[in-house]
Design goal:
Blueprint lengths: L38 H7 L3 H5 L7 H11 L4 H12 L8 H16 L4 H12 L1 H9 L5 H17 L5 H12 L8
Helix pairs in contact: 5-6, 8-9
Length: 184
């Protein structure tokens, strides 16, 4: 659903309310779900979740046009997406000092964005900034360990229990040990 397909309720003048709501607040609009509380923002982004999650380089022509309209609309979701995309550039820095300066600029922009969830995330990232910047000095992650742990947990849940720890251990070694079972 693109911005050109939005359906809005009937606007009334200040004081009359909107589409039957007598509170005089003209900010509310009806989208596909209708009713108070969904607002113009919800009506614009409803049904576009995948567009926000996909890599823009993989869009079809229609998806690119629809996403460009959403991205340039000034919606809260568009500002949050822009902040997320901008933060991903942090991993391109090689030096801690320049990355720290970039983070300071990004943090200032997000803290002035008036997006409470983004401000909360930015504050959390600021508390952990030293640990985040450690990655620039030592680009080591625990992704392999997490992957093995995930595989072990899957083995454990698929088995629905083992008779002994030795059976559990053998199964882990068999599936995660990269054993070569072909005859030599």
């Amino acid at each position: 659903m693109g911005l050109q397909n939005l359906r809005f309720g009937h606007w009334r003048t200040e004081g009359e309310g909107f589409a039957g709501h007598g509170d005089g607040d003209p900010r509310w609009a009806w989208g596909q779900r209708g009713g108070r509380g969904w607002g113009l923002e919800w009506a614009a982004v409803e049904g576009t979740r995948q567009l926000w999650l996909f890599n823009p380089q993989n869009f079809t022509t229609d998806q690119a046009a629809e996403f460009a309209a959403l991205r340039d609309s000034g919606l809260k979701a568009a500002r949050a997406w822009a902040a997320k995309e901008l933060f991903s550039r942090l991993w391109n820095y090689r030096y801690e000092g320049s990355a720290r300066k970039f983070f300071g600029d990004w943090y200032g922009w997000v803290s002035r964005s008036r997006l409470k969830p983004m401000i909360k995330v930015a504050k959390m990232l600021k508390r952990h900034l030293d640990n985040i910047l450690t990655y620039l000095r030592h680009p080591i992650t625990n992704a392999v360990t997490e992957g093995l742990n995930s595989k072990i947990q899957m083995l454990k849940s698929n088995a629905r229990g083992f008779r002994s720890f030795e059976n559990y251990r053998l199964r882990i070694l068999f599936f995660c040990g990269k054993l070569n079972l072909y005859p030599q």
